[in-house]
Amino acid sequence: MIDLKLLQKDFDTVRTKLMRKGVDAALLETLKTKNEELKTAKANFEALQAAQNAMSKEFGVYKREGKDISELKARVDANKVKVTEAIEIQREAQEALETLAMAIPNMPDDSVPDGADENDNIEIKKVLTPPTFNFTPKEHWELAEKNGWIDFERGVKLATSRFSVSFGMGARLERALINFMLDFNRERGFEEVSVPALVNRQALEGTGQLPKFEDDLYKIDGQELFLIPTAEVPVTNLFQDEILKADELPKKMTAYTSCFRKEAGAAGRDTRGMIRQHQFHKVELVTIANPETSEQIFDEMVECASGILTALELPHRLVNLCTGDLGFGAAHTTDIEVWLPGQNTYREISSISNTRDFQARRAKIRFKNGKKNEFVHTLNGSSLAVGRTLVAIMENFQNEDGSIDIPKVLHPYLGM
After folding, report:
1. What are 45-89's pLDDT values in tens digits?
2. Residue 3 DSSP label
3. Which phi-psi region, left, alpha or beta, contains residue 122 (left: φ > 0; alpha: ψ -120 to 50)?
4. By the 8 A CB rule, do 337 and 319 touch?
5. 3-state secondary structure of 221
6. Would you call 351 a catalytic residue per the annotation?
7. What is the pLDDT of residues 81-109, one digit of tens each?
8. Which of 11, 46, 244, 264 could cross-link with 367 by S-S, CB 3.0 to 4.6 Å?
9. 276 is catalytic
10. Catalytic residue among 276, 295, 347, 374
11. Is 255 helix (H, G, I), strand (E, B) or coil?
């Protein structure tokens, strides 16, 4: 959640930053109105409270001087009623502003480039050179079906479209990739955790999926439980409503989970293959950090995710997301895009984001900084999306006859 104190102190700066991220002008005017209503409510309460304190002092004077206090008592009693009413008005104004603020995205860092969409993102660098073929490379769904690794029709039979079933080497490779990624991350200081695949509404509000993105979530009927869209949700919320010690930070964690998304806003996109599934496997990186070190840790997380692709010999590039492509909770993001020869393009396989204190405010995650309690910074990123990594292996390691080589780093995980 955006800093409401900053909002009250400097609304124009907040508005300017949010407009860079494409927040609707009407919504910003409503935010300004709710903010002004709260400021007025606070001022009214403080004035009534000051009057109450002044009249309380008069009681002592009246008693010392032997004056009749009946008229003063009547004024005090009447003011108490106004104070009670003012407290309720302030509470309602605070609640209204906080409810609206929950639907407001994070402010982008000043370093984030302006832009309308993914076409305005800025490439940072390329890592490894895409392979060349003396034949026309096939797309992953052709290779998956030819080798019997993935069965899309049986996925539909078991569930619906955008589900798939892995067989044989396809299933073994998924498991090998998960273990390799977790080992790779653990060796770089990320503690492995295992978390539930179901979370409550409060957890999703804490990381920013609710209330805005409820249509993308799978909800359990009759319960306030949702299937997780990413391990970012349960791992970040492990420390919801806690005050951590400064020497406990950073808390660097990695987790494997299945993830579930309706992809309500992606109709017609990537309908073939494994790029955009309703259920997919992912290894996630999450860090709870001291604000002073969060940027250093951000760089470490980008390097970690990129390092996995390098170890797998998969060409990729790093991209700085522009304001129009930046996620709801992110202050800034580096995407990692892997080269897919069958599509002759780079496709996103990871997004590493620093949310600053945006999620921490929503989830109430703080740390003891001297005598003060301050909000932590939270960071998250895919390391990596398992299905998309499998896609990249199929397309980059394919042979003319349709067979697929296996990256050497995975051989020990497959008994090769």
Report:
1. 999 999 988 888 887 787 777 788 888 888 888 999 999 999 999
2. -
3. beta
4. yes
5. coil
6. yes
7. 999 999 999 999 999 999 999 999 999 99
8. 244
9. yes
10. 276
11. strand
